[in-house]
């Protein structure tokens, strides 16, 4: 119920958009009845069915262009521009499709498609404008606001509270404050003890109990060094986390802020990869994995025989790892160690020149051939080609306690290769993991298809040079 409430703007807007687009199909048909067959001439499912198909087409275009991302109290101008960009892309694709029909002149086809695209744009832009205007009206009257809490009980927290209370169109209803240092709020600040919901170590329970959607961090300047610890406690993909920056950050340009009604806010870990890139990444994962498994089939057979007859144990090594959002899965690799290598030691890190590695396993690791079965994990959706390497639950628990923000690695699918693998040396120590985590977090914050391509190219070069370990 809570997650459904979180996406209510997207659900409501997408349903209304679909109905508007379908209405536009009928409206355009009334005025230009002979032109609609140009748009969908090969789909013989009746006029209404054709309207459903082309409405779904437009919906896909809008999803791919990110027109359903962050709709809550979005700027009406920004939304107008998003609708315009999506409409232009939709029209360009229809240009290409209709020009293949050859039934009428290209000029007439372009005129019809342009007019139809303009109709869709006009209807959707008007629809979005009305929705956001109504939403803004309700927000100004304190209705439909996101439930929020403020971390901090000092002057900065009180200032943020007053601004949010005064400017309802910021979209947050502050339910209370969270103590950071364990001390009761200073009476001179103006925050009552009854307004304090609890301390930072209780924030997980508080967020669940109060169904919090937004968390605003407003610490005093002398507490800024503890910001990482605070962010670690509120590390949840379902919570929008914002910071109140200090004056130096704003004037130096070190932080990109959203300036609304005089209250600057920094959004922590906004999702950088738009939906169309996520979709493309997943399709690319599937395509490359299928091709890789087919091409490497002879290698798979040879390696299977080599592993089977050079050491005792199975060909495929299976191990439970932690994937996206903390969900566990079984990773598949060619076995490179002797059977029961950890029987007497329990879970331990792999080392350079690890004595547990077989002679065949050494070369499989060096050429990264041992990871070929992981393409099956990619096909299943447990992994991606690019992402942070998945760890075992034992180590994830240990790292979570010792490395700040480590769990942010779990916001994306783990990968066969990643930024940390191509940029940092191999090693088996907490310090090494700490350094690799920095690279993983950098990847998550800057994820894009371009960066994935860069990582894949570097990985291929590493394999060619035989620098794997």
Task: Walk me through the structure.
The protein is α/β, with parallel strands linked by helices and 469 residues long. The chain has three domains: 2-140, no CATH class; 146-267, Rossmann fold (3-Layer(aba) Sandwich), CATH 3.40.50; 275-465, no CATH class. Helix content is 51%, strand content 12%. The chain contains 18 helices and eleven strands. The strands form three sheets. A seven-stranded mixed β-sheet has the order 3-2-1-4-5-7-6. It has a two-stranded antiparallel ribbon with strand order 8-9. A hairpin with a 5-residue loop joins β8 (316-322) and β9 (328-334). The radius of gyration is 27 Å and the shape is flat.
Distinctive features:
469 residues; alpha/beta; Rossmann fold; 3 domains; seven-stranded mixed β-sheet; two-stranded antiparallel sheet; flat
């Amino acid at each position: 119920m809570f997650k459904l409430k979180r996406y209510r703007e997207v659900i409501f807007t997408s349903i209304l958009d679909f109905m508007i687009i379908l209405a536009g199909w009928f409206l355009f048909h009334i005025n230009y009845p002979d032109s609609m067959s140009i748009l969908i001439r090969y789909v013989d499912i009746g006029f209404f069915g054709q309207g459903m198909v082309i409405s779904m087409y437009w919906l896909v275009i809008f999803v791919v262009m990110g027109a359903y991302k962050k709709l809550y109290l979005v700027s009406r101008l920004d939304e107008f521009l998003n609708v315009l960009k999506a409409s232009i892309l939709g029209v360009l694709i229809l240009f290409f499709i209709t020009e293949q029909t050859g039934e009428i002149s290209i000029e007439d086809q372009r005129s019809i498609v342009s007019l139809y695209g303009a109709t869709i744009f006009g209807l959707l832009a008007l629809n979005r404008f009305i929705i956001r205007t109504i939403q803004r009206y309700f927000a100004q009257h304190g209705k439909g606001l996101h439930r929020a809490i403020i971390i901090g009980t000092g002057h900065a927290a009180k200032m943020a509270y007053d601004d949010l209370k005064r400017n309802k169109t910021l979209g947050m209803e502050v339910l209370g404050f969270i103590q950071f240092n364990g001390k009761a709020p200073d009476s001179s600040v103006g925050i009552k003890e009854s307004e304090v919901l609890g301390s930072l170590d209780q924030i997980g329970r508080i967020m669940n109990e109060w169904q919090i959607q937004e968390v605003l961090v407003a610490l005093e300047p002398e507490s800024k060094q503890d910001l990482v610890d605070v962010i670690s406690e509120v590390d949840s993909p379902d919570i929008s986390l914002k910071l109140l920056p200090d004056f130096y950050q704003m004037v130096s340009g070190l932080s990109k802020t959203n300036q609304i009604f005089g209250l600057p806010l920094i959004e922590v870990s906004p999702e950088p990869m738009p939906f169309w890139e996520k979709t493309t990444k997943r399709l690319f994962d599937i395509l490359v994995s299928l091709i890789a498994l087919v091409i490497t089939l002879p290698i798979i057979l040879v390696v299977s025989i080599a592993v089977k007859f050079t050491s005792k144990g199975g060909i495929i090594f299976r191990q439970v790892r932690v994937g996206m959002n903390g969900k566990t899965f079984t990773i598949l690799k060619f076995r490179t160690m002797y059977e029961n290598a950890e029987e007497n030691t329990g879970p331990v890190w792999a080392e350079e020149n690890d004595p547990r590695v077989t002679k065949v396993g050494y070369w499989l690791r060096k050429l990264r051939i041992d990871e070929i079965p992981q393409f099956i994990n990619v096909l299943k959706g447990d992994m991606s080609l690019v992402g942070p390497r998945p760890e075992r639950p034992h180590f994830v628990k240990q790292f979570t306690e010792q490395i700040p923000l480590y769990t942010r690695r779990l916001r994306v699918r783990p990968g066969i290769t990643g930024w940390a693998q191509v940029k940092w040396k191999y090693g088996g120590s907490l310090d090494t993991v700490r350094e690799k985590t920095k690279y993983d977090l950098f990847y998550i914050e800057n994820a894009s298809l371009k960066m994935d391509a860069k990582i894949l190219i570097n990985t291929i070069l590493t394999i060619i040079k035989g620098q794997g370990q």
